[in-house]
Design a protein that fits this description.
The chain contains 27 helices and 6 strands. By secondary structure, it is mainly alpha-helical. Among the domains are: 121 residues, Serine Threonine Protein Phosphatase 5, Tetratricopeptide repeat (Alpha Horseshoe); 227 residues, Serine Threonine Protein Phosphatase 5, Tetratricopeptide repeat (Alpha Horseshoe), CATH 1.25.40. The strands form 2 sheets. It has a 3-stranded antiparallel sheet with strand order 1-2-3, with no helix packed on it. The protein has a 3-stranded antiparallel sheet with strand order 4-5-6. A hairpin with a 2-residue loop joins strand 2 and strand 3. The longest helix is centred in the C-terminal third of the chain and has 42 residues. The relative contact order is 0.03.
C-alpha cells in the first residue's frame, strides 16, 4: 500500500497547520500527540526530514505558550536521530543553536526553561571524558560476585564454603570492606551477610570484631557528615548492626550506646542545626530500623528495663522535633505496637518529664534497697550460728549451688547452657540476651557480686565435716531398725518358663499344692504334710524354675493359707449377696406376671428348665433386654434374671 504513507502524512500536516493557525491554548494534548506521531514516522524514514524541520521552524517563529511544548516534544522524539544522521547534522545543529538563543533571550517560566534544556541536551549532550572503569584483580571480582550476585537463601552455605577457601591473609581486608557495602545488595538479604560473618568467625576469631568496629565507625561518620546521599547506606548499616546482635556478635550495651548516640550526637553544640536540623527526621528512621531488627529480644530482665528507659527518652526526642510527617509517624506507631503495645505515648513534655522523674526515683529506691540488703548480708555473715559456722558460709554455699543450677543446669560444663539458650530464639537461631548473660550486662555484675568466694576457716570446716559424718551414720542406723516390707509370696510363673520346663510333674502341679505322705514317699515317709513350691532362679542369662518341698507348719505356708482363706471368705460373701439379690428380683417378677395373666408362659419356661435339669445345662430367654436365667446349685434349679448379652 504505497499510497498509505503519503495520505497519512498529508492528513498529519493538515492537522498540524490547523492547530498552529487556530492558536488554541486548550487542546495541548492533541498538539503533542500530532507532533510525536510525525517524529516517530521520521525515525522510520516514512516522514521526510523537510517536514520535520518545517514544523520545528513554525514553532520557533512563534516561540511562546504551547509552541514551546510542541517544539520540545518534537526534539525529544526525533531530534537525536536527525542530529546523528549524516545529511541533517548541520541543519539540526543550526536549529538547536537558534533554540538556545531564544531561551536566553526570552524570559521563560521555570517549567518551559527546564523543558528546553532537557530537549537541547538530549539531542546534543555535553562533551565529557569517557568514564574509566575500575580495574579489579580476578580474586576481588570473584568475591564481589559471590556477595552481590550469587548470595541468597539457597546458596548461603555454598558462598560460605567458597569464602573459606580463599587465601585469608590476602583477602581478609577486602572481605571486611565488601561486608560493609551491604547497601549495594538487596535490603532483604542483609541478614545473610550477618550469617556469613557468624560462619567465618568460627574459623577466624578476629574477623567479626573488625566488621563490628567498622560498622560502628561508619554509623558515627554518617552522623558527623549528615549527607543526604548517605542515608540509604546508613539505614543498611543500622539493619546490619541489628542482625549482628541477633547472631550474638555484639552485646546489648552496644545497641543501647548506639541508640543514645543517635539521639544526643551534636546536640548542645554550635553545629546542632547542621548535624540535626529541626526539620530533619532521618535519625528517627535510623532508630526505628534498629529496634525493628533486634528490639523484640529485649523483653525480659535488665534489657527490658533498658529499652523501657530508652523509649521514654526517644519520646522526648520526638516531642522536641515537633509534628512528624505521616510516613515517619506510621513507622513509629508500628514500632511501638510491635515492641511495647501497652506503653503510653505522652503528648506533652511535662507529662513525659514527670514519667522520667518517677522512673529515676524508682531506680534510686531499688539501688538503695539493694545496698541495704548487701550491708545486712555482710553483717550477718560475721555472726556464728549454734553450730559455730557463720551465716555467710551457708549463704555463700547456697548461692554457689544456685549459680551452678542457673548457668549449667546441674552439669559441670557449659554445653547445656548453649543448647538451651539456642532454642529460645525463634527462626534465626539466636540466643536471648538475658538468658545468655553477655559480658558487661547488669545481671552479670550483680551475679558476680553475689557469688563471691568467702574464705572458710579450716578448723570450722573440719568440725562441720565431722558433724555431717555423725549425722549420716545416725540416719543409717535408724534405717536398719525399720521393719522390712514383706515381698509378694505368690508370684505367677511366666508361661515361657513353664512351657520350656523339662519336668512334666512340675508343669502339672501348681505352686503351693499340698503333698501327703503317700504322694511324697521319698520325702520322709511320715504323715507330715509338705507343700510343693516353685523357686525362680537365674542361671547365666536364662531363667528356670525348681521344685522345693517345705513343711506345712512353717510361717511362710501358714501366712499364705491365712491370706487365701480370707480371700475365699470374701468371695463367698459377695456370691451370697448376689444370689439374694437375684432371688428377690425373681419373686418380684413372678408376682407381676401372675397379676397380668402371663403365668402360663412363665410356668412353661420353668417346666422346660426343670426338664433340662438332669442334663446339667442352663438356658435362658431374652425378653426386651432382660433375660431369665436358670442356675443349678447343689442339684437344684435357681431361676434368676439378669441383663441379656
Amino acid at each position: 500500500m504505497k499510497d498509505l504513507p503519503s495520505m497519512l502524512l498529508s492528513m498529519l500536516e493538515e492537522e498540524f497547520n490547523f492547530l498552529m493557525n487556530k492558536k488554541d491554548q486548550i487542546k495541548i494534548e492533541t498538539k503533542i500527540r500530532n507532533i510525536r506521531f510525525i517524529g516517530e514516522l521520521c525515525k522510520f524514514n516514512i516522514a521526510p526530514s523537510g517536514l520535520v524541520f518545517s514544523c520545528l521552524k513554525a514553532c520557533l517563529d512563534d516561540f511562546s505558550h504551547h509552541n514551546i511544548d510542541v517544539a520540545c516534544n518534537l526534539l525529544e522524539t526525533c531530534g537525536r536521530f536527525l542530529y546523528l544522521s549524516q545529511g541533517t547534522t548541520v541543519r539540526m545543529s543550526n536549529m538547536l543553536e537558534i533554540l538556545r538563543r531564544l531561551k536566553n533571550v526570552k524570559n521563560l517560566d521555570p517549567h518551559h526553561s527546564t523543558l528546553v534544556e532537557n530537549a537541547y541536551y538530549l539531542c546534543k549532550p555535553p562533551e565529557r571524558s569517557a568514564r574509566v572503569s575500575k580495574v579489579r584483580p580476578p580474586l576481588h571480582q570473584y568475591i564481589r560476585k559471590l556477595l552481590f550476585s550469587d548470595l541468597d537463601k539457597t546458596s548461603v552455605q555454598h558462598v560460605l564454603r567458597q569464602l573459606r577457601k580463599l587465601p585469608w591473609a590476602e583477602c581478609e581486608e577486602y572481605l571486611v570492606k565488601c561486608f560493609l557495602k551491604v547497601h549495594k545488595g538487596k535490603y532483604s538479604q542483609v541478614h545473610l551477610i550477618a550469617l556469613l560473618t557468624a560462619g567465618l568467625s568460627h574459623y577466624h576469631d578476629d574477623f567479626h570484631v573488625a566488621v563490628v568496629d567498622e560498622v560502628l565507625e561508619e554509623i558515627r561518620v554518617g552522623l558527623e557528615l549528615n549527607d543526604y546521599a548517605m542515608q540509604q547506606r546508613q539505614l543498611a548499616h543500622m539493619r546490619f548492626l541489628g542482625e549482628l546482635y541477633n547472631y550474638e556478635h555484639i552485646d546489648s550495651s552496644v545497641i543501647f550506646d548506639t541508640l543514645y548516640l543517635i539521639t544526643v550526637f551534636g546536640h548542645g553544640t554550635l553545629e546542632q542545626d547542621l548535624l540535626d536540623p529541626p526539620e530533619d527526621f532521618f535519625r528517627i528512621r535510623m532508630i526505628v530500623t534498629l529496634l525493628q531488627t533486634c528490639g523484640h529480644y529485649f523483653d525480659r530482665g535488665s534489657s527490658k528495663r533498658k529499652l523501657d528507659r530508652f523509649l521514654l527518652h526517644f519520646q522526648r526526642y520526638i516531642l522536641n522535633k515537633g509534628p512528624l510527617p505521616l510516613d515517619v509517624e506510621f513507622d513509629v506507631q508500628d514500632m511501638f505496637a510491635e515492641l511495647r503495645p501497652n506503653m503510653t505515648r505522652y503528648s506533652s513534655p511535662e507529662l513525659l518529664a514527670s514519667a522520667l522523674a518517677e522512673l529515676e526515683e524508682n531506680e534510686k529506691t531499688k539501688q538503695s534497697e539493694s545496698a541495704a540488703s548487701d550491708a545486712s548480708c555482710k553483717s550477718s555473715a560475721n555472726r556464728p550460728d549454734k553450730n559455730g559456722r557463720g551465716h555467710g558460709e551457708v549463704a555463700d554455699s547456697e548461692s554457689y549451688s544456685g549459680s551452678r543450677s542457673i548457668y549449667h543446669d546441674g552439669s559441670e560444663d557449659g554445653d547445656s547452657l548453649y543448647e538451651e539458650n539456642s532454642d529460645d530464639r525463634s527462626g534465626n537461631g539466636v540466643v536471648d540476651d538475658d538468658d545468655a548473660m553477655p559480658s558487661g550486662s547488669d545481671e552479670e555484675e550483680r551475679v558476680q557480686v553475689r557469688h563471691k568466694v568467702v574464705q572458710v576457716d579450716p578448723k570450722e570446716q573440719e568440725d562441720f565435716d565431722r558433724e555431717l559424718r555423725a549425722l549420716l551414720q545416725e540416719s543409717l542406723e535408724s534405717r536398719k531398725l525399720e521393719p522390712r516390707v514383706k515381698s509378694t509370696l505368690n508370684m505367677t510363673v511366666p508361661m515361657k518358663i513353664v512351657e520350656g520346663s523339662k519336668d512334666s510333674r512340675a508343669t502339672e502341679r501348681e505352686s503351693g499344692e499340698e503333698l501327703t505322705a503317700e504322694e511324697n514317699g521319698n520325702a520322709g515317709g511320715g504323715s507330715e504334710v509338705k507343700v510343693c513350691v516353685r523357686v525362680l532362679v537365674k542361671k547365666g542369662h536364662k531363667q528356670q524354675t525348681r521344685q522345693m518341698l517345705i513343711p506345712g507348719d512353717c510361717s511362710l505356708v501358714q501366712s499364705t493359707k491365712q491370706q487365701e482363706a480370707a480371700l475365699l471368705e470374701e468371695k463367698q460373701n459377695i456370691k451370697q449377696k448376689i444370689l439374694e439379690y437375684n432371688e428377690r428380683e425373681e419373686e418380684e417378677f413372678n408376682a407381676s406376671a401372675f397379676q397380668t395373666g402371663f403365668w402360663g408362659q412363665g410356668g412353661s419356661s420353668a417346666g422346660g428348665s426343670i426338664g433340662s435339669a438332669g442334663r446339667g445345662s442352663w438356658d435362658g430367654s431374652n425378653r426386651g433386654g432382660r433375660g431369665r436365667q436358670r442356675y443349678y446349685i447343689a442339684g437344684g434349679i435357681y431361676h434368676g434374671y439378669g441383663r441379656g448379652r
